[in-house]
Amino acid sequence: MTTQQTDAEKRIAELETAVMGEDKVLTDIGENYAFLIDQLRAAQAKNEELEQLFALHYKREVEAIKRWRAEDPTGRALRAPAYGALLDWLYVELEMATAKSNERREMLEEVEWIKAGGYEHCLICLNSKDEGHDTRCYIAKAIGEDS
């Protein structure tokens, strides 16, 4: 027997072993096919969810950078903020918007109080020349009562 025949026989034996191993793997896959398909579908669903989350994050980040640049168009036109600085800037923007919203809510509450008769209450206090009328009117306004 030549060396080439021995090497060829070894290689054939290796391939036969590999094929047998693949058959076992394929058998294992066949037995667990439903489980593996469920796992694959779950992974695909999670991947889709994450892709949507990343797309939303990117969209919101682009919107925030546009707002940041609009505040100072000449100075920030070709710059991108550091992510932390952008978040700080957005937080300040949120605080200012919240303050403005609270101010508007208080104005609406005052209008509702006036519509409910609060204005007449103040006129009564003012006409009575009671020196403490301001305090009582503001207390009545704060609690929404006519006292």
Please tell me about this protein's structure.
The longest helix is centred in the C-terminal third of the chain and has 45 residues, at 83-127. The protein has five helices and no strands. It is elongated, with a radius of gyration of 38 Å. The model is unreliable at 139-147 (pLDDT under 50). The protein has a domain at 82-147. It has helices spanning 3-31, 33-71, 73-76, 83-127, 133-143. Helix 4 packs across helix 5 (133-143). The chain is mainly α and 147 residues long. It is 87% helix and 0% strand.
How many strands, what sense, and barrel or not for the largest sheet? none
Low-confidence stretches: 139-147
Q: Find the structural class using helix and strand composition.
A: mainly alpha
Query: What is the CA-based Rg, rounded?
Result: 38 Å
Which terms summarize this structure?
147 residues, mainly alpha, 87% helix, 5 helices
